[in-house]
Each structure stands twice: as structure tokens, then as C-alpha cells.
Amino acid sequence: MENSEWLCEGERIDDLQRNGLRIIQRTDGFRFGTDAVLLADFAGVKKGEHVADVGTGTGVLPLLLCARAQDTTFDAFEIQPDVADMAQRSVRLNGLEGRIRIHHADCRDAAAIIGHERCHLVVSNPPYTKGGAGLVSPEQTRALSRSDSDCPLPEWIAACGRLLKNGGRLCCVFPAPRFLELCDAMRAARIEPKRVRFVVARESSSPKLVLVEGLKGARSGLHLLPMLITHDAQGNFTQEMRRIYGEE
Q1: What global pTM score does this model have?
Q2: Bridge partners (DSSP) listed for residue 76
């Protein structure tokens, strides 16, 4: 098919630079960013795992992760119908219907749809802004993607927990200032934070993001990884970021 046959008005196809994979995104709406790329690298998906993506957006995480491990299968959940439709078209565009299923559904219904405790790994990029805090985007898709006013963080993480097998992993990327809120929500869902990495723009900067992996049903014990520095003093990607983006 020609690109125009895959697209609706105001959309474009972008190259993910991973095994020829491509993704459909809006030109004037929410698009995936560095946080999704960092989470895909941090999650460390393993061959043959069943993975869920809670709040998949345009489906970037299943696309990136399926390129990292063979025989992985994915169930991805997105509440916004137009965004879920874009994600589904991206799956078809890449010929991955046999590995990735997109569900237009509220994350709180995910376990009822595919079954409780089915997944080895759940990845999630929860809405960053607490309901009632911060500026609200005038563009509805961006507002829904960034604010947890519709589904508060504890309910979001509880939904992730219902999908996980005992001993399964939840990997999230979240604003560093809300790190303790995320840990509280994980523990309430019987997911113990185990591996943490803070992300800074430069060596002298304060953390803006945090990557967290928790294990369902595990005992306490936190492993702090070295900080991930994204840019050097000249403003260029660090060597690790070039590796993450596949530039090395």
C-alpha cells in the first residue's frame, strides 16, 4: 500500500529505526518521546514472554520491544478510540498482527479482557500529571495522555498488578518528583520496587525522570542503578543514549 492508504487526515508515518519498523502518529497531537525509548531499553524483555502495555498510546512500546526479543506477544490497552485505531493500523503496517493485539479499553478492565495474572512483564508510561495539577493541554489527546484525572495512579498501578503473574515484572517511567507516589502505589498492589534508575539531562542536573522495575510478591530490597545521563556538556547524546537509540 501507498502511505496515504494507511493514514487519516493529519497523520504521518515515522521510521522507528528498529528492524525497519514504522509507526503512525498525528502531526498535531501526542507523539512518543524519549521516555518511551528509555523504558523499552530498561524493561529488558525476554524471549517468549507475554507482555502487556497499559496506556499504549500509539503502540510504540510493543513495536520497540518486539524488535528486542523473539517470540514475545503483546496485549496493549488504550482508552482513546482514535489513538487505539492509530496503534492498530501501525501493527498492521508492520505485519505484526500475530504478535501484538491492541485493545480499545480502560486499563482497569484489562485483566477482565485477557485474564488475571497472565503476563510475565507489564510496561507502562502512566500519565505524568496528577489530576488538578499543572496546565491542561488545549488538545484533548495530549491532556488525556498526560493527566491521571480519569484514572488516579493507585488505580492505574492496581490494574497493572492484576495482569502480572506472581514474580512478574512491572516496568514504568515516571517523573522523578513523584517517585515516592509511584512506589506507594506499587506496594499497595503487592509489587515491590526492586530496580531504580534516575534520568538526568546533564551530569550536573537534577533528575527529571525515573525508571522503576518492581516484582509482584517479592520481598523488599532496592537496587539503585547509576544515573542515566542523556546529554554531554556540548548538548549531544551521551554514548549510552546513542546505544539506546541504535546509533552505535
Answers
A1: 0.89
A2: 53, 102
At 68, list the grid cell. 528486542
CA dist 103 and 100 (Å) reads: 10
CA end-to-end span of the chain? 32
For the ranges 65-69, 117-121, 218-222, the lowest mean pLDDT is seen at 65-69
Asked whether residue 89 carries a pLDDT value surpassing 90, the answer given is: yes
Angle at 54 (CA atoms; ends 81, 202), nearest 5 degrees: 110
- Indicate if the pLDDT at residue 143 is higher than 50: no
- The three cell numbers locating residue 86: 492509530
Cβ atoms 87, 77 nearer than 8 A: no
For 36, the enclosing helix (H) or strand (E) is helix 34-43
Kindly report the CA angle at 198 between 194 and 68, in degrees rounded to 5? 70
Q: Are 125 and 54 within 8 A, CB to CB? A: no
